Amino acid sequence: MNKVKIGVVGIGNMGTYHSKWIAEGMIPELKLCAVCDTDPKRLEWAKINLPENVVKFSDASAMFRSQLIDAAIIATPHYQHPPLVIDAIGCGLHVMSEKPAGVYTKQVAEMNEIASKSDKVFAIMYNQRTDHLYRKMKEIVDSEEFGQIKRTIWIVTNWYRSQSYYDSGGWRATWAGEGGGVLINQCSHNLDLLQWICGMPVRVRAFCHEGKWHAIEVEDDVTAYMEYENGATGVFITSTADAPGTNRFEVMLEGGKLVCEDGKLHIFKLDVNKREFNLVNREGFKEPAFVHSIAETDGQSSQHIEVLKSFAAAILRGHPLIADGVEGIRGLSISNAMHLSSWLDKTVSLPLDEDLFLSELKKRISTSKIKIQ
Amino acid sequence: MNKVKIGVVGIGNMGTYHSKWIAEGMIPELKLCAVCDTDPKRLEWAKINLPENVVKFSDASAMFRSQLIDAAIIATPHYQHPPLVIDAIGCGLHVMSEKPAGVYTKQVAEMNEIASKSDKVFAIMYNQRTDHLYRKMKEIVDSEEFGQIKRTIWIVTNWYRSQSYYDSGGWRATWAGEGGGVLINQCSHNLDLLQWICGMPVRVRAFCHEGKWHAIEVEDDVTAYMEYENGATGVFITSTADAPGTNRFEVMLEGGKLVCEDGKLHIFKLDVNKREFNLVNREGFKEPAFVHSIAETDGQSSQHIEVLKSFAAAILRGHPLIADGVEGIRGLSISNAMHLSSWLDKTVSLPLDEDLFLSELKKRISTSKIKIQ
Questions:
Q1: Is pLDDT above 90 for B253?
Q2: Residues with Cβ < 8 Å from B216, sequence gap 6 or more?
Q3: Average of per-residue pLDDT across A4-19
Q4: Chains A–B, number of C-beta pairs less than 8 Å apart
Q5: What is the ipTM metric for this complex?
Q6: Shortest alpha-carbon distance between residue B244 and chain A (Å)
Q7: Span A159-176, mean pLDDT?
Q8: Distance (Å, rounded) from C-alpha A313 to C-alpha A306?
Q9: CA B50/CA B66 separation, integer angstroms
Q10: Closest CB to B165 among A237, A243, A284
Q11: What is the pLDDT of residue A287?
């Protein structure tokens, strides 16, 4: 079998899993040839836990130029994603970036431009796009059977983290180290799914509370209001301090309602479109009739493994990706807009003023407790 | 049995029900002696549908001064509530006002001052306070067993109304006729329950969309963000255009979570307080354990009848009211704050700047399609 020779940059966290999954043959079309980490302890771990013939690097650039690999997975801290992706593509490699695409869209836009001009495959690890319930939601919304979206409400407060999580790395939850809190770290999946299923908002008004529940610099509690091009509105609520948290994603459409909660997708389908009913109905208090059902899905949520398989298939056979790397900018734009809205205490329009965001972020980086950028 | 002789002002809508319930003896301690309406057709209705000995008035002031009654129920359009309450109390009557207390707090504050100085019973028809689930929520929050509130989220979009409802009266959904839309009309119960159970917010940032889904002057779609004195935040979402709507009220507390939806109150009780767990736990991703249960309640939701019974009992025996009339200002303050925040496009603090609100309301009344105030 034709295999893609791959190297993993950053084996401190998710990269550890990627390396092991590939080494164990869980993605048959990927062959782990190299790993890279700046921390000698992690290379020590690799020596013990990965096959002997996997070459260890302490410098990503050297790995990219080693001729040992066709593709790279970037699983480093967020700020390093774009420069490493750019370097890897420049070395003629296909690239899979961990989420988020980066910390600020200005940097990510530059990465996207380079990726778009190259003939290499550029993917992003939006593994939650493989979830059967979110796929079904997208399928229903895209089908237009339910008409246009009127309202989105995602309460995703089940990202509980206690202080010890934040204390586990000096870079964690700092402006210089991560460039944000729950929005950029935990919610990068949710913000991607939100735009993937419901499209991009055009205006955002957010209330981000920094260090509200934990001794951290960045936000751990966010409530955001959004407006869409067609007049629809949305609310996004998240926190790392609610227990037990809620994960309930409601999409109200002209033809009914979708509610994803507790591992089920509830479908409420109207007999007649709301807009028509509103004009035709003559009984003031009467509501349009509807049918409630639980969505039938394929039940599959293959997560990271499928994303990696599709990456290999894209390289070898031009198979479609689960998530194109350039799409990473969308969820990040929403995240950046939420931060900026909260910092400026006003509504922010999308597309974002990238320079303004970066200058505001830099102010925070300059007073950050750590200076590792 | 000692009975309170009562008169009802306004028998076009809720007053019709109150009159019939009392006439039918459903509130044994109230005796219907008079009704009043400015519309001759409604008095015609009264002639046919109410006992012969119920005296009909076309002028409320005349009824108040008739010596036929000890107490009055005010069930007129919103703007008239405060002046009628003031007049009735001035005539030495006990008063039950329909909700809302009024349209703007300046007027309601004046009413409250007069009511507070009198020795008459002043009540307000917050019948949803009798609902067993909301009573249970209040009981749990008040008990402090779950500690302080961290977050409130009420999605109450199940107030569907079609255009024909708004077209059923020229005064409906106009600034001059009703002084607001879904907030003041449909949500006066929800905003009262919100403050009754969770307390008053101190800051409000709202996004009210006027005539968004219907051909009306006032708001039919609202998303509001709130902040409480203790740092807790809240979201309130309502609309008269969602179908099927949602009614889901979540209260996140230090010791767990309450979720009221679909006729059930879900209780999620942590084994240990979140604040302690956060500091003590050493496993970053671990969440505090909890027990989920469905609240056991008395199942009673006696609504208007109980509110009227307690009103009679308060007059005859000093029994506590379901809702003291002066408390009507609280939910109205939140409603006014939401309107004002949206009109000014900024965050508004509570207590409200009543003069500013009134001047903004007057601007809208002056261009209102009807001028009935």
A1: yes
A2: B166, B172, B173, B174, B181, B210
A3: 96
A4: 139
A5: 0.95
A6: 7
A7: 91
A8: 10
A9: 19
A10: A284
A11: 87
